[in-house]
Amino acid sequence: MAILGDDDLEAIKGLIKVTIDEAIEEKFITKADISHLPTKDEFYTKMDEVMGELKAIREEQPLQSHKLS
Questions:
Q1: Using CA atoms, how far apart are residues 44 and 39, in angstroms rounded to an integer?
Q2: Does the predicted model carry a pTM greater than 0.85?
Q3: What pLDDT shows up at residue 67?
Q4: By C-alpha distance, which of 67, 43, 47 is closest to 55?
């Protein structure tokens, strides 16, 4: 097993500091960052449409598989 020297430990400390600094910088979200996202109402309306289509597909699937066999 290799033993870490002082230079190795300093390199690790530097890497951790850079990683933490990047995480802190990325943590703050501005209104500009989320301006392209849909509102809750828009999201739920679209999800209702998608779930309706999924339900219809699942209901049709047994009927189509019966015809194939």
A1: 9
A2: no
A3: 66
A4: 47
